[in-house]
Amino acid sequence: MSMMKAVVIEHFGGPEVLVYKTIPKPIPEQHHVVIKVKAFGLNHAEMHMRKGEWDEWNPISGLECVGIVDACPGGEIPVGSKVAAVMGGMGRNRPGSYGEFVSVPASNVIQLETSLPWEQLAALPEVYCTASTCLFTILGLQRGETLLIRGATSTIGQAALKLAANAGVIVTATSRSKDRFDFLKSIGANDVRVESSALTQHFKPNEDQDYRFDKTLNLIGNRVLLESISLTRPGGRMLQAGWLGGLEPIPEFNPMIQMEPGVHFSLFHSKVLGSPDFPLSGVGLQDIVRKIENGEFDAKPTHVFEYGDIHNAHRILDSGKAGGKIVVRH
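RE: above sequence
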């Protein structure tokens, strides 16, 4: 039996509960791809899984990775190919990418041609697949439209801002800190406002200009759901795809009374990426990689750790001060 190293959650708690163990290497299955992991990004869900605060988790965490195909019995992707993998139950109902090798459903693996270094490629799968799906599949964003991104300094928010600006969209971004305004403008925001639960007051309607947006991406969550709908014009779309402000439900929610009419409202969770309803073929990750290679926008991680330094990587994750994507490389 072939063996491999893996980072394992022994019990719930802080970064110190992550331990290195030697375990059996995944056995190749039909319609699955075994990947030799070269690097993986960290996600906040993995912090909550480690703490025992998530409904689904696996002792071997990790929702995404990049690497080389080691085995693919069904022949969907040639052995030796560079690939990115995201979701497909990784770190939830099957072992995730914190191992040296991981087995992933073929539908959740994307073959890529790229010269980007592994650590830069690893910053892309979850955030860019999610952001692209939110903007172009669900919101149907078009060049010249106006977009409000609430929570734009998050990793998903930054990716969405870069993609939207690159697509010729007029973007207003929010951040809790004015210290981040210049940064958001540098990556494509046309306007930046302080994030608050009374954001509407910052926009003054007048006879000449409608203050409402064509599309709104709400990454804050339920706390600002109703206001985000009110900031979207009739016929526009508001998508909630995050919970930076917590998961508390809206008290005594009555949509017939509280929701503005005529606005299309949707939800999205990245765990459905690669499913029949949201195939990865619709994301265009290869095109995103090409744009990064061509210098159209930057997508480098803010922190890169070696595989043997997982504890410090998770300490930065816990701090909430990463400022962008954290990547671990082999």
